[in-house]
Amino acid sequence: MGQQEKIPVGIVGASGYGGVQLVRLLLDHPLLELVYLGGEGSAGRRYAELYPHFYGSLDLIIEPVDLEVIGDRCQVVFLALPNGLAADMAPTLIHKGCKVLDLSADYRFEDLQTYQLWYGKTREDRELAATAVYGLPEIYRDRIAQSQLVGCAGCYPTASLLALSPLLKQGLIVPETAIIDAKSGTSGGGRQGKINLLLAEADGSLGAYNVGRHRHTPEIEQVCSDLAGHEVLIQFTPHLIPMPRGILATVYATMRDPGLVRDDLLTIYKAFYRSCPWVRILPSGVYPQTKWACGTNLCYIGIEVDERTGRVIVISAIDNLLKGQSGQAVQCLNIMMGWSETLGLPELAFYP
Amino acid sequence: MGQQEKIPVGIVGASGYGGVQLVRLLLDHPLLELVYLGGEGSAGRRYAELYPHFYGSLDLIIEPVDLEVIGDRCQVVFLALPNGLAADMAPTLIHKGCKVLDLSADYRFEDLQTYQLWYGKTREDRELAATAVYGLPEIYRDRIAQSQLVGCAGCYPTASLLALSPLLKQGLIVPETAIIDAKSGTSGGGRQGKINLLLAEADGSLGAYNVGRHRHTPEIEQVCSDLAGHEVLIQFTPHLIPMPRGILATVYATMRDPGLVRDDLLTIYKAFYRSCPWVRILPSGVYPQTKWACGTNLCYIGIEVDERTGRVIVISAIDNLLKGQSGQAVQCLNIMMGWSETLGLPELAFYP
Amino acid sequence: MGQQEKIPVGIVGASGYGGVQLVRLLLDHPLLELVYLGGEGSAGRRYAELYPHFYGSLDLIIEPVDLEVIGDRCQVVFLALPNGLAADMAPTLIHKGCKVLDLSADYRFEDLQTYQLWYGKTREDRELAATAVYGLPEIYRDRIAQSQLVGCAGCYPTASLLALSPLLKQGLIVPETAIIDAKSGTSGGGRQGKINLLLAEADGSLGAYNVGRHRHTPEIEQVCSDLAGHEVLIQFTPHLIPMPRGILATVYATMRDPGLVRDDLLTIYKAFYRSCPWVRILPSGVYPQTKWACGTNLCYIGIEVDERTGRVIVISAIDNLLKGQSGQAVQCLNIMMGWSETLGLPELAFYP
Amino acid sequence: MGQQEKIPVGIVGASGYGGVQLVRLLLDHPLLELVYLGGEGSAGRRYAELYPHFYGSLDLIIEPVDLEVIGDRCQVVFLALPNGLAADMAPTLIHKGCKVLDLSADYRFEDLQTYQLWYGKTREDRELAATAVYGLPEIYRDRIAQSQLVGCAGCYPTASLLALSPLLKQGLIVPETAIIDAKSGTSGGGRQGKINLLLAEADGSLGAYNVGRHRHTPEIEQVCSDLAGHEVLIQFTPHLIPMPRGILATVYATMRDPGLVRDDLLTIYKAFYRSCPWVRILPSGVYPQTKWACGTNLCYIGIEVDERTGRVIVISAIDNLLKGQSGQAVQCLNIMMGWSETLGLPELAFYP
User: Fold this and answer.
1) How far is the C-alpha of C247 from the C-alpha of A115, rounded, in Å?
2) Which of B90, C37, C116, C146 has the fewest C-beta atoms under 10 angstroms from its C-beta?
3) How many CA atoms are closer than 13 Å to the CA of B97, on its beta-carbon side?
4) What is the rounded (10 degree) CA torsion for C130, C135, C137, C139?
């Protein structure tokens, strides 16, 4: 493998948390070479000024965003920008022959109406958007392998859908009873100076937000509906947890067959994820801690059946910035390139 | 008030977190005087050796537990012990004329069968147990006022029941759809050297535990059944959050009348808690942070209706060691003594 | 005391962390009544919108800053503003007869040259500034009692000077060997959306900042020089700690007399602070934890002598927002009013 | 390299934090193969039961500690045990031809008198101990390369000595003025259920411990004396910080030549560490954050000169469990084997 030529890769929006994970991952990837870092506000600055732990490891300068230049230099481009910007860049990059992996919500929706309703931006790239694939490899691996443009799954949807998918796909639950109580570290809010994300405010505390109206809801529902074969509404509630990274999704649903026991479900989940190297089904009675997944691309899943209430409770844990964002993007790219989907991605946390 | 003689009070089990909250609260209470601190392992030691922030403020020595002595010296006794010990002490103390407030689970159950099933201890004090009142003043204030023995409500049940009670009492929800996703700081695990409660393990992480079988479940169900007028099963899942104190309960339930909107529920909740000085119903669109309640006896409640799914989502926040334990015990005692139930209890957090 | 009329008090700059502590403290103070909250950016908003834990406890609206109005309504005004603003307001308020307590650096310096050098603002209020007293009651109690205008001590200086003062005053150390290694929670950075204060960045991490050039240095040196009787240079290094509040100062100095042992120093410290209700000298071998002081106006001090090196090591802990800021301001006001200096101030933390 | 046969490696004491870092590192190392995990209390259990994030990645069972068996199966043995146990095992293992890397204090001291004085254990292995090399590669690389037995440097000594060594080696400071104010995450206390290490106690708080008598003092002094060429006493104070991992050492010393400026020192440090891939000297005005080093084997160093006081202040940051313990042990082994000292070790943190 050492002889193989490396693929030149660029990142637009390198200064945020999604960007810095990508930079970190790409420096370790054996077949990718980071050749371009783009940003508007930070153009001209050395990347290590923004993230000083890179001093001595990375000498790149952040460059202005010029799509022609990017398209010429890169075979692959990651877009790590606020929602609404990728839709203005992807068409040019795709036209120039790049593979594009978008970390925002712009290319996640089959129905742009839904996007426009929840994100409030009118879209001109209807044709291109129709070719985009939803970047959740455990569900859409084959389509990702064929695609040029991937709308990488959101962090909450990744944790939620990996917990829910086997249940919906196998018809084991009453879909409308599904409730997702999700908990995220504060890095999900991005590298922005928001008061509620200050350590002084968020540490030692916990709260819900956007109850009943978080934008990840329609994204979760789109995949759930696809798996269930009919339209499904999901209850989704996000909470902010006093920790930098990690997501835990606690998923509740009423089983169609109250006779199923925990071991049945463990068997079903293991079979469903048999070919998925990034999903770990935990043994009976073990539930995941988010820290196990931090710094890795893994999703840990624990399963419980409450025979008293007839519900299944599935608990999934991921690193919101890796499996929930940048790690998953690299996993998608590995698949698009025909490589092993584990290539260059970290598997084990440094615990504690 | 300054002229009124203070009531002598004792604490058995003063070395734990429940004990230290009581000590702190009693030192500020205008009508109570802490005269006895009891403990087995720590007897003979100065209390400030265990909790050095008391140096210069409290000179008491921890004494051995001798029920006769306690009964002679104290008019009121708080029992802050592991489950199963209060049942061996309360009879003697009650017999000696003390008012007893138990912080353990021993006197929370109307049906001792349920207690024995979930706690595994056979009970000999059936008669006395039948006189005990469940110590959740917002629901059972009148009975508490008449009682000699109070089994103070658990931390999770307090947060959960204050969120759920108006819905059940008014028949607004389908009871069996109620799901409580609860999150607690680690002090709930007590002052014991458990590996999973070490900062190195618990910080920066999050997980569920005792899924489908936490002992607070039957306690929640007992009150829910009482309010609903028939037996109710509740889904309850606790999570450990990387913070010292605080509980957030996120409660989901399907409304009987899908036409109810958020403002209707706010009105109903405000009416329900009209005479409850320790409950704050938040304005429309505001959800509580646990830190708001820390160091206070308050319960903050935020309410949301999801019109898409027909569910109500109620979120409550308390300090697990105050309103969830020792503060509530003092509130109960205030009621038993015929005093204002806010007497001597802290109302506002030091934020941030 | 219940009959005594309450003194009307105002806060200018109520929206920051200093402001919110003052609001919290004043609501509990038996002889003060909060009648005015002023702010520029937040004028017209209900205070509880900024800090929702006040819903149900405080109904005040933030008002624009009109010095004439403030002076008419308030007998006492707390200025809780960024450095440089108090100097423009205090003259008018003093002229109108108010007592003024400034929480910024504006009135801390005897020599305005020093202020101008470190803070970069030219001052027009030289005459008034000369009447201001440095608000550290343990050192300047008598002068505070006589003053109309107090420049309350900074947070780091408070912790540092309470640790150092007995040594300097008694001539026990070689002053120029004094090194203060100080550690602060992140609320010291104020309620501003700074990237480095985000939980995602600051949690699980630790670093020094402003090494050799923090603005609290000249303030510390001013008091040290006063106590030593000659000009003293001090080494001061602040660090940011992943916690919301609290300061620990670890102070090192070489003893003049290497024969002094720990117990000698404990005796000297206890004598020095004999009349200081807010200082606790810990027993031999006990060192303070910042959390013991959180939510209180106390300063805990632990003392060690290293006989191998001939150094004394003094460790002090305070709540940076109370004894280090707003609590101390109220303590100063108590003294200015001729009241007990403990009046209305919290003494014991809710631990853990 | 893929063709090279892997070296079989064992870990005795695999259940602690040192052990679990080694397991994690060895799974990624291209030339080492983990073949043995030993422990007393946990023998017979699957390793993933102790650390469930290994489910699906590691199937090893913990075995009893039988030195003959270990010596037969392993070419290299890491001892990750409490102080005092390695001295009873190393002789047999060395005799059987193993390379031994001890993570405890047993083989760190040239003078066993010092060890016995500070650790209170009488030693029978005087001859073997005399052959051990102190495992701090940046100072003793050549001797490590020749050794069979390495006493890996402690966590605090590593951070402290990397900050101090260039100053002492070049005679730039007055050695007896050196003061090390060190701050560590709580994992340094090990995987033991100690009350003061509970999240509920340690979170949101900060304190010093073992002031003037921490056992890492003589270890630091031994190397300082070696570098200075005469016996040196050092002031060392450790603090516990509310975070799982990381150490920051803030080192103060008076310069012999007050004319040296920051840039001079930066040049000297860069030259001193020219051939050290695991040390990063930060640019002028940049001070390290511990989180930059977490999950890596790097030591970041920032340097400041205070021209007012004539002192140099050097600040170093490491991951206490990697560069401060297990990572450094692997680095030492790489050197003993004649490999690149960066082999198989992580270089960049996942930030934030």
Assistant:
1) 48
2) C146
3) 6
4) -60
Residue A53: closest CA among B148, D264, D290: D290
Q: Are the Cβ atoms of D289 and C212 closer than 8 angstroms?
A: no
How far apart are the C-alpha atoms of A79 and A63, rounded to whole Å? 14
- What is the edge-to-edge ordering of all strands in the sheet holding C7-12? C32-38, C7-12, C76-79, C99-102, C149-152, C133-135
CB contact under 8 A, B206 and A246: yes
CA distance C341 to C318: 17
**How are the residues of chain C apportioned to helix, strand and coil, as percentages rounded to the nearest 5?**
35, 20, 40
DSSP A177-198: G-EEEEEE-GGGG-SS--GGGB
Q: How far, in Å, are B236, C37, C267 from residue A176 at the CA level?
A: 19, 49, 71
Residue B343 one-letter amino acid: L
CA distance B34 to B16: 16
Closest-CA residue of chain C to D312:
C212
Nearest Cα neighbor of B300 from B140, B163, B188 is B163
Give the tens place of pLDDT for each residue, D262-314: 999 999 999 999 999 999 999 999 999 999 999 999 999 999 999 999 999 99
SS3 content of chain A, % helix, strand, coil (to 5): 35, 20, 40
Indicate left, alpha or beta for D97 from its phi (over 0: left) and psi (-120 to 50: alpha).
Answer: left
CA distance C102 to C81: 8
On the question of pLDDT at D189 being above 70, the answer is yes
Residue found by looking up tokens 């997980």 in the block? B207
pLDDT 10s digits, B314-339: 999 999 999 999 999 999 999 999 99
Strands (E), C179-309: 179-184, 207-208, 235-240, 247-254, 279-281, 299-306
Residues of C near B (CB-CB distance < 8 A)?
Answer: 17, 20-21, 24, 27-28, 51-57, 187, 203-204, 244-245, 280, 282-283, 286, 288-289, 291-295, 300, 319, 321-322, 346-352
Q: Determine contact, residues B33/B9, Cβ cutoff 8 Å.
A: yes
The whole-angstrom separation of Cα C309 and Cα C331 is 38
| Residue B25 burial (CB count, 10 A) | 24
Question: Alpha helices of chain A — where are they, by DSSP H?
Answer: 17-28, 47-50, 67-73, 86-95, 112-119, 126-131, 137-146, 155-169, 199-202, 216-228, 262-272, 290-293, 326-336
Residue B1 pLDDT greater than 70, yes or no: no
Q: What is the pLDDT of residue C3?
A: 64
SS (H, E, C) A116-147: HHHHCCCCCCHHHHHHCEEECHHHHHHHHHHC
Number of H helices, E strands in chain D: 13, 13
Do residue C243 and residue D239 have CB atoms under 8 angstroms apart? no
Which of B191, B225, B155 has the alpha carbon at shortest distance from B51? B191
Q: Are A208 and B315 in contact (CB under 8 A)?
A: yes
Interchain proximity B199–D245, CB inside 8 Å? no
ipTM topping 0.90: yes
CA–chain centroid gap for A82, Å, is: 14
Token pair recorded at residue B266: 């706010």
Q: Decide if D53 contacts A349 (C-beta within 8 A).
A: yes
pLDDT at residue A153 greater than cutoff 50: yes
Query: What is the spatial distance between Cα B137 and Cα D175, in angstroms, rounded to a whole number?
Result: 66
Helix (H), strand (E) at residue D50: helix D47-50
Q: What DSSP state is assigned to residue C318?
A: E
Tokens at C78, concatenated: 């707390």
Give C174-194 as a 3 state SS string.
Answer: CHHHCEEEEEECHHHHCCCCC
Mean of pLDDT values over C128-138:
98
Query: Helix (H, G, I), strand (E, B), or coil: what is residue D164?
Result: helix
